[in-house]
Amino acid sequence: MAISAARGKLIAVIGDEDTCVGFVLGGVGELNKTKQSNYMVVDKNSSIGEIEETFRSFLRREDIGIVLINQNVAEMIRHVIDAHDLPIPAVLEIPSKDAPYDPSKDSILRRAKGMFSSEDFR
Hints:
Helix content is 39%, strand content 17%.
């Protein structure tokens, strides 16, 4: 059911300029009927409140199925990301060119590890 609910939905991106530009050039960028974009470029002038509000607005939008967020940006709003427990939109943390990916900080991986024990893989 979750897969069929995600069909025809957009990918949203919250990240540094290089990440957002790459995804927009790849065809991810969209404006909805009310002229809201599906991406946010985070720079040194972006406030944590602004990032949180954009993230929450992406979660509320019916047309978004996946939210990609740079892991270093996700760390700034970790409490908001950890509070999101619905399968759609899925929230995926991705690396940025300035900050390497750290699997120990990824909320999805932490949840997955909690679902399985080491004995499940023997």
